Amino acid sequence: MEIRKSNPTASTKRLFGIKELATEIGGTVWFWRSQIWDGQIPFVQVGKKMFVDRNDIEIFIEKNKHRN
Questions:
Q1: What residues are paired with 17 via a beta bridge?
Q2: Is 21 within 8 Å of 32 (Cβ atoms)?
């Protein structure tokens, strides 16, 4: 039996705009922009629009995890 995801494009989408990051991952638009401006997350720029690669988001999350 195959399990279907409710949103099949969610798992295949690779680039996220800043507003999408805030909606899908959490945080605010300004948080994600500041991470890009501080060099914490690489980005792809197309015209004036910035996109972040899903793989780079995963790396950012893993790098910033803290354990007590």
A1: 51
A2: yes
Q: Which domain holds residue 52?
A: 15-63
Structural domains of the chain, count: 1
| Contact of 40 with 63, CB cutoff 8 Å | no
For 30-41, what is each residue's pLDDT tens digit?
999 999 999 999
β-pairing, 49-53 vs 44-46, is antiparallel
pLDDT at 65 over 80: yes
Query: How many angstroms separate the CA atoms of 62 and 60, rounded?
Result: 6
**Which domain CATH number covers 41?**
1.10.10
Look at residue 8 and give its three-state secondary structure. helix
